[in-house]
Structures are given as C-alpha cells and as structure tokens.
Design goal:
Layout: E1 2-8, E2 12-15, H1 17-20, H2 27-34, E3 38-41, H3 48-62, E4 72-76, H4 88-96, E5 103-106, H5 112-126, E6 131-139, H6 149-152, E7 157-165, E8 174-181, E9 189-190, E10 211-212, H7 214-235, E11 245-248, H8 253-263, H9 274-277, H10 284-294, E12 303-310, E13 314-321
Keywords: Acyltransferase, Cytoplasm, Fatty acid biosynthesis, Fatty acid metabolism, Lipid biosynthesis, Lipid metabolism, Multifunctional enzyme, Transferase
Domain Beta-ketoacyl-[acyl-carrier-protein] synthase III N-terminal: 104-183
Pathway: Lipid metabolism; fatty acid biosynthesis
C-alpha cells in the first residue's frame, strides 16, 4: 500500500516574467501554451538528493516509521547528483543516515514515479521487503538551456516521496501498475551528451542540456496517455466515475485537459499543480498527491489514477488506494 506521501519545494519562486528579459516570450505566451504561471528553482549548491531527502524524511515520519525500518530506497531522477556514479539514491540514503540499506536509481524521466511504484510493489508483494521508500527528486534547472524557450519555461525543481508497505486490505492496496517504453522515439526528448564524449567540453556546451521535439511529444503524449488510462481502467473493470482523484504527470495543462475531456473526468477529480510548480518530472505526481494531502482532501481508501509519459520514451499508469492516515 501507499502508506504516506510528502514533498519538498525549494524556496526560489520564478514567475514567467523572469523569462521575458531572457527570451522572445511573454507570460501570456507561456500560459496559453502550457498553463504554467510559476515554478521553483533550487540554489546552485543544492542537488537533487538534497531536495529528495527533505521529502523522504517527512514521508518516513508520516508513515509512523523510523528510518531504520526502511528496507530499500528507490530514486527516480533525470537530474542526478553525478553523471555516472554514485547513484542519487546512494547519496540520498547517506543523507538520511542509512548505512546498509540497498539503494538504486531508476531512470525513466517523467514516468519515473510510476516505474518506482511498479518496482516497489513487486519487491513488497514478493515478501522480500516490508517498507520501500520511493523518491522522485529533480533539479531540472540544472539540465535546461535558458536560450531555448521551448524547454526552459516548462520545468521546475522539487521532490516527492512515498513509503510503500505491505497490506492485506485490498481497499488499501496498489491495485495495478502498468509500465511501458519505446526507445525508437528516444530523440523526441533527451540530453545529447554521452559518456563517450570528452570530459573537456566547454561549460556552456549545449550537449549537456535537455532537447525536445515539442509538437511530436505533445501529440504522442495525448494519444499514449488516453490508451494507457483506458487500458488500465478496462483491465480492472473500473469506470472513470469510480476514481476519486486523477493525478497525471504535470507536464502541460493542455495535455492534461485533453485527456480529462476525452475520459469525462470532472474538475473535482483532476489534481492540477502544473500552474504552480511547472513540470518537475519524476517528482510531479507525488508533489501533486502531497498537495491534496496537505489540503486535507486525500483520505484513506480514496482511489487514485496515476498516469505519466516521459523521455525514453516511457509511460505508465497505476490504480492506487491511499492507505495512509
């Protein structure tokens, strides 16, 4: 079951007017195409693990556990602390004060949280682990080209964390998770630099920043997400009316609204935070979940439909009963 949820947002709020002096853009242009009004950026000194550990500590506390009761740490991020190693999960575990707990990253970009959920569910249901900490932690600002208005206005920094635990109550369970990928579309959303390239690259070299075929991603995301949601609902004989909250990856308001309208979800069912936080990649779903938790709206037994699409290309969906207090 999903036993707890928490989030952490860095202090610096960046509104759309910030980009007007840097790019050929405006607040009106950004809001019309993305729905985004603000996003939050970490300080230069902060790493993804620094954001993640804040969310993780709160998630563990809300689960009523000690850190020593965490059996496995999984982190999803497209903005790791280090290019190759160690994993962000290892550095986050160290900052939590864990010494012997297995920890690993799962790289699925904006679909990262669904992949984390699928992996944690498998470990817990196998009986191998009792409590798995999953963390989506992103310093997206570290991989942005601030001369590219098609990408830099979209993303924000933040972290979200959940504790996944065993349960015998089906109404508190992670009912189903489906994940998929298609690497044939890898160049739709990627960072060009590879480890084969020389380390002696100019610091401003654009090979280190995110690239996206925006129109192609937009169209494919809507098509894929619609099918994904229809498939998981159909496989579990659940109608849209039975969903308490639809919590999609917060990438673009137009994408979310297209899926919402096709499936006839009400405004009350759909959780939206993209206007406030922008696209926080693997952190966006738990951050949105935490938003309704802290508003007192998320109750034990509520059925959540989660859905995400990201670089890889990757995508996934989940039906989750909230099992926390």
């Amino acid at each position: 079951m999903l036993k707890s949820v928490a989030a952490y947002v860095p202090d610096k709020c960046v509104d759309n007017s910030t980009f007007e002096g840097l790019l050929d853009t405006s607040d009106e242009w950004i809001q019309k195409r993305t729905g985004i009004k603000t996003r939050y950026f970490a300080t230069p000194e902060q790493k993804s693990s620094d954001l993640g550990v804040k969310a993780a500590q709160t998630a563990i506390e809300r689960a009523g556990l000690s850190k020593e009761e965490i059996d496995l740490v999984l982190v999803g991020t497209l903005s790791p602390d280090y290019l190759a190693m160690p994993s962000t999960a290892c550095t986050l575990s160290a900052k939590l004060g864990l010494e012997n707990t297995p920890s690993m990253d799962i790289v699925a970009a904006c679909s990262g949280f669904i992949y984390l959920l699928a992996t944690a569910k498998a470990f817990v249901e196998s009986g191998m682990y009792a409590h798995v900490l999953i963390v989506g932690a992103e310093k997206c600002s570290s991989v942005l080209d601030f001369e590219d208005r098609s990408t830099c206005v979209l993303f924000g920094d933040g972290a979200g964390a959940c504790v996944i635990a065993r349960t015998d109550n089906p109404k508190e369970s992670i009912l189903d998770v489906k994940i998929a990928s298609n690497g044939a579309y890898a160049d739709y959303l990627y960072t060009p630099r590879t480890l084969k390239q020389s380390a002696f690259i100019e610091s401003c070299d654009q090979s280190q920043t995110l690239r996206m075929k925006g129109n192609e991603v937009f169209k494919l995301a809507i098509k894929t997400l619609l099918k994904d949601v229809e498939d998981i609902l159909g496989a579990n004989n659940i109608s849209p009316e039975q969903i308490t909250y639809f919590i999609p990856h917060q990438a673009n308001l137009r994408i979310i609204q297209a899926v919402q309208n096709q499936l006839a979800f009400s405004q009350e069912q759909v959780v939206l935070t993209v206007q406030k936080y922008g696209n926080t990649s693997a952190a966006s779903i738990p951050m949105a979940m935490n938003e309704i938790y802290e508003q007192g709206k998320l109750k034990k037994g509520d059925l959540m439909l989660l859905d995400a699409f990201g670089g890889g290309l990757t995508w996934g969906s989940a039906l989750v009963y909230y099992g926390g207090d």
